Amino acid sequence: MRPGLPGQEPPPRTRPRSPPSPDSLPEAPGAVFKPASSAFYLAPAALPDAAGLQEPAAPGGRLSVRDDGRCSSQLRGFPPPFSPSLPPPIPALSLCSGQGTQKKKARVAIPDVAGVQCRGEPAIGRGRWRPVGHVSYSNLGTVIRTGSPEQTSLMKKDTRYLAYFIAACYLDYHRALALIILTSLALAFLAYSIVKKCLGAKIIQMFSPCRKCCEKAWPWLKWVLCAILLIALITWLVLDVSQRKEQLVSLGGFCVLVFLLFLFSKHPMAVSWRAVFWGLGLQFVLGIFIIRTEPGFQAFQWLGNQIQIFLNYTTAGSSFVFGEKLIQESFAFQALPIVIFFSCVMSILYYLGVMQFVILKLSWLLQITMGTAATESLSVVGNIFVGMTEAPLLIRPYLGDMTRSEVHAVMTGGFATIAGSVMGAYISFGIDASSLIAASVMAAPCALAMAKLVYPEVETSKFQSCEGIKIACGEEKNILEAAGNGASVSVGLVANIAANLIAFLAVLAFINAALSWLGGMVNLPQLSFQLICSYVLMPLAFLLGASWEDASLAAEMVGIKFFLNEFVAYQQLSTYKNNRLMGLPEWDGSQKQWISFLT
């Protein structure tokens, strides 16, 4: 007895027949093949109708998928037509490729009603789908295509980029360093997304016993960890400060400032010391990594150089608009176009979703370590990249429900960091780019810590978790619109900067002239606003880490920053740095011309 369906004798073959070609196979109208894995499922409507099965044949058949994604098939050994009157089906059905020794199998299921579909979903246990029998065909690997045209195109592009990447690294590894870093970041992001999507729930479930154990032991474990960290910090400070004892001054100043802020706290008894110590600790760790370790120093130095090179491309646009001579001689035509260019780039990054991803991850780090609210953490981290007027827009839907302490933290973060667009203007003054980047990154956790020290949280926050928090996005339709909007928005910022510089420098000149006139009455014609600041704020500058010889100049710039404008302060800092680089003497009579700790 020849094999067939259980309980059914297949009709005898009258004559041998060669298998039909794929092009002659009947086609199931509307059938769409959606492979999800190595298993394939065929609904009965994907089978040809009775017209294609009239001639008796041996059990077997062929299933093919054309380039347009439509299914066609030919089965032999099944009595037509397929109808609910068929005998009960067998438990399983396989499609086997018999080429060579390898066999590929796919499951074919036929429901008890008419309809044509090919599915990439399990056939057993899903609705009225039932496996019916065995169908074998040849060359499954070449007939069934498991990739869509988009996937095939993407694979070709990936292969081309891989060849380009290998060639670039082989020809000059150092020249391709930026390409290697960008590729590594892209691969890390892709791997993170895939792992989170496919294995995220399993990983969380795997570590849930450890999490429960840590939660039980956390009341005493946190004190043990704090003690270990404190001992390690004290040991490192003793070993490091023993070689340079002048650093004890800045350490003492650090403690004095924290104590003063605690004295003026709104609710001293409600201070969350977890937020304070974690914020200061993160700043301390970042400072050690950036300044005292070779990899950190080299990484930020390289990053600063790349940003400097990137911002230099502004001259291509500004020289075309204003001319080469103007951009070399005028601050307005040299520095302010950088603000426009950087704002345009930031808008593009927001449109692509890059900034949202970075801000969310960094704010998540602050939120789980410091225990601060998600909204204030988002805003403080956003201030690293955007200004204090743009950062609150990231959390605009939640501003109405934020507590006073959270609003205070948002404002503190805006004053403590430098916006990316304005940073470009400071770099054009000649200020070291790596130092500006490091200072802005280190200031974010410290600003949040000081905000929680001065105005602790005494209300119940509605945003203790990052879940459900979404960053507000723009309404641009394409990348060109995003770039144009970014440039247009920066026009107001550029006008603001120019107007403030004109106004504050004019006011400063008038104040200095008035003070000089008043001082001349008592033989002190050199009396000026900067001189007053240098004496009044000299102890503060000394506690911040400046040497006593340089404390007067540092205090002068701190005073200008406090009472006038930070642009004016950075311009003064640039003057002192250039004086040293030009080889001018340190002292001109009784006037110091540059700061010794500037590089």
UniProtKB/TrEMBL annotation:
Annotated TM spans: 176-199, 220-241, 247-264, 271-291, 331-352, 364-387, 407-429, 436-455, 493-515, 527-548
InterPro entries per the UniProt record, alphabetical: C_nuclsd_transpt, C_nuclsd_transpt_met_bac, CNT_C_dom, CNT_N_dom, Gate_dom
GO molecular function, one term: nucleoside:sodium symporter activity
A Pfam family matched in the record: Nucleos_tra2_C
Keyword field: Cell membrane, Membrane, Transmembrane, Transmembrane helix, Transport
Bias (Pro residues): 8-23
Residues covered by the Concentrative nucleoside transporter N-terminal domain: 253-324
UniProt-annotated stretches for the region Disordered: 1-31, 53-86
Domain Concentrative nucleoside transporter C-terminal: 436-579
Subcellular location: Cell membrane
Domain Nucleoside transporter/FeoB GTPase Gate: 333-430
Coiled coil region boundaries: none
GO cellular component: plasma membrane
UniProt topology in membrane: Multi-pass membrane protein
Domain of life, source organism: Eukaryota
Protein family: Belongs to the concentrative nucleoside transporter (CNT) (TC 2.A.41) family.
NCBIfam families from the UniProt entry: nupC
This protein's name: Sodium/nucleoside cotransporter
